[in-house]
Specification:
This protein is an alpha+beta fold. It is built from 6 helices and 3 strands; from the N terminus they run H-H-H-H-H-E-E-E-H.
């Protein structure tokens, strides 16, 4: 625009209105390749939009190759950087259990003295979860404080009392 109106208006005035330094204008006239837009930039933008903004350079490269467009990862990365595109990825997270915990104060009977007990008389337990097939699976482990080994276990799709009861059912009392 500035170059097209250079005969009618002073360049300094044209640069002052949009806030462009005059040195930038003169640098751009000496480097016309800086204005060039990569011909595959539209394809990169379309693939990224089709991937809901989550695709990175590698996935965009694979999608472009399926379309018959050949480009290096460096070239695609440069296009993304110039156009301000970044890949975003979603990470699956577990939802915290929203119910209130039992806040009753219990006496500390063991007082961290775990030695000298009979097996399966003093137990510690824990619940953990892992994503299996896109869904959460839960495991309950009971650890004997006498020998610090796993004495009971259970696994299931629901995090409820039946999981804990199942772990106690595997204790195998004589």
């Amino acid at each position: 625009m500035i170059r097209a109106n250079a005969a009618r208006y002073p360049i300094s005035a044209q640069c002052r209105i949009p806030g462009v330094p005059r040195s930038t204008y003169y640098w751009m006239t000496g480097h016309p390749e800086a204005e060039r837009v990569d011909p595959i930039a539209g394809d990169v933008r379309a693939v990224r939009h089709a991937g809901r903004g989550r695709y990175g350079v590698r996935k965009i490269k694979a999608a472009l190759e399926r379309r018959g467009v050949t480009a290096s990862r460096r070239r695609i990365g440069n296009i993304m950087r110039e156009q301000g595109m970044t890949s975003a990825y979603a990470r699956k997270r577990s939802e915290p259990h929203r119910t209130r915990v039992n806040e009753a104060r219990l006496a500390n009977i063991l007082d961290r003295e775990f030695d000298g007990y009979e097996p399966r008389t003093h137990l510690a337990g824990g619940l953990t979860y892992v994503s299996v097939g896109g869904k959460w699976a839960y495991a309950c482990l009971l650890i004997g404080l006498a020998n610090r080994g796993i004495t009971g276990h259970s696994a299931g799709r629901a995090r409820d009392a039946s999981l804990v009861l199942g772990a106690f059912a595997t204790l195998g009392f004589p």
